[in-house]
Amino acid sequence: MNLPSKLPDVGTTIFTVMSQLANESKAINLSQGFPGFDCDPYLVDLVTRFMKEGKNQYAPMTGIPELREILSEKTKSLYQVDYNSESEVTIVSGATDALFSAVSAVVQPGDEVILLEPAYDSYAPAVKLSGGVAVFVPLNIPEFSVDWDRVKDAITEKTRVIMVNNPHNPSGYVWTKQDLDTLAGLVRDKNIFIISDEVYEHIIFDGRKHLSLMCHPVLKERTFICGSFGKTFHVTGWKIGYCLAPKPLSIEFRKVHQFVTFSTATPLQFALAEYLKDERKYLDLPGFYQKKRDLFCSGLSETDFKFTPSQGSFFQLVSYKHLSSISDYELSVKMCKEVGVACIPISVFFNQKEDHKILRFCFAKSDSELLEALDKLNSSNLF
C-alpha cells in the first residue's frame, strides 16, 4: 500500500518533542504552553454538578444556548460589540478547531493566505490541507511588530485570508490601534477575510488593553475571532473554545465545524456558562499573570540573557545571540538535558526555520517551579 502524505514536511510538533524530553530528563517544563497549576476548584465542582444532573449527551452543534448567550453578553460588555448568540457565536473543541474550521470554510485551492511569522505551527498545515498557498511575511525583530509595508507588498489578487495573532505567540507582542487601522486600510476594498487568533485576550500586561479585531467595523465584517476558554481558565486539557463571526461567515464556518468535532463536551459547556457569570474570573487574570511574568523576569535579569518583558500571553522570549552561535534547537536540547529546564527554540515558528538565537519560556507555572527554574538557569554554565 502506498499512502502519499498530504503533509510530507510535517512531523511531531516541537511542543510534544520538548515535553517528552523534559519528562525523560526530569526537567522543569517551561516549554509547552499549558499552566503548571490547577484551575479554580469551583469550576471543577460545577462540571461535577452538571454531570450528576445528567448533562452528558450531545450538545447542540453550535454550543448550548446558555454558553453562547453569556459569551455574547461578555463580548458586548468588554468590547461594546454585538454578536447574535444564535447565529454568530459557535462553541468549538478548542481554538485549533476554530482556526482549522475557519481556514477550511474560506480557503479554496490556489488561494493565498498571508501568515505573519514567527507563526503558531497549526496555521500553515491548515492552509495546505485546504489547497491554499501560505505566504510568509516576517515580523519586525526584535519587537515583533507587524511590518505593514511587507504585508501590503504580499497582497495579490489571489490573497483570500490574512491570519493574525494578538497577543502574539511566541513573542507576546500586543497590537495597537494603529495596527488595526492599517490592516483595515489594506483590506477595506478587497475580498480578503481575516482569521484572528486571540486566545490570550485576557493575558495582557502593564495597563494595556486588548484591541480585538472585532472593535474595528471594517475588520469585524470579515473576521473570524478565535478564542479559548482553556487558555483563559487554566483548563487547556478541556479543549474548549469559540468562534465569533458575522452571520454569513458563521454559516460557512459551521458547515465545516459540524464535520470536524460536531459538538463539544456538554457538562463543560454548562459549567463555563455558570462560571462566566462572575466577570472577576477573567478581569483579574492580567494581574495574576503579570505577577508571574514579573517574578520570572526579575530572575532572568540575573542571567546573561537579554530580553524585553512580554506585553502579553504567558511567554517570555530571551536572546542569547551575544553569548553563543549554537543553534536555538541545540541549545534547547542542551538546556533541557544539562540544566534541567525545558524551553522552545523559536526557529520552529518560522517556515524556513530561521534561527535568531531566541528561546521561548512559558511562565504560566507555579511560583515554586519558576524560582527553581531560575535557580538552575543562574547556576548553569551553558556558554
UniProtKB/TrEMBL annotation:
The lineage of its organism: Bacteria, Pseudomonadati, Bacteroidota, Cytophagia, Cytophagales. This is Aminotransferase, classes I and II. It comes from the Bacteria. Residues 26-376 form the Aminotransferase class I/classII large domain. Belongs to the class-I pyridoxal-phosphate-dependent aminotransferase family. InterPro entries: Aminotransferase_I/II_large, Kynurenine-oxoglutarate_AT, PyrdxlP-dep_Trfase, PyrdxlP-dep_Trfase_major, PyrdxlP-dep_Trfase_small. SUPFAM superfamilies: PLP-dependent transferases. One of its GO terms (molecular function) is kynurenine-oxoglutarate transaminase activity. GO terms for cellular component: cytoplasm. It comes from Algoriphagus machipongonensis. Its cofactor is pyridoxal 5'-phosphate. Keywords: Aminotransferase, Pyridoxal phosphate, Transferase.
